[in-house]
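Hey,
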Amino acid sequence: MIHINYIEIMFKKEKGVILYLALIILTIGMAVVLGLSTILVGQIKTIEQMENSMRALFAADTGMERALYGEEGNPDQNYSGSLDGASYETNVFCSPDYPRDPEYPDEPVCPLGIEFIDDDCAAYFFCYYSMGTCQNTQRKLEAVR
């Protein structure tokens, strides 16, 4: 009889242990799930930003192609348009001299705000700027011809 009372007393002391153990396991599981979901949400945002960046770059490229090859007869024009959720704006400027950067004399450069525009566009060099925009992302291309 003494042996049975000892077992009953021992089980009475351990009745709440499983509740604490389940609570600890659930807490650890929720921490792991929340950590992984935070990482996944950050990755999804990065992928969306990369998509916007690519669309903006392709839109800028479309504007540049249109300016360089689309309208050969009148190169001194500005172009704008939209493409698959992105927009572009391309500016063409006449330059009477081959523009150069003093730090990099072998590479052509067209500074923003160029003032070498004449009415006939009888220049030897043209500066092309194309800005593509998709949502809050902008990408820019420059070319000299």
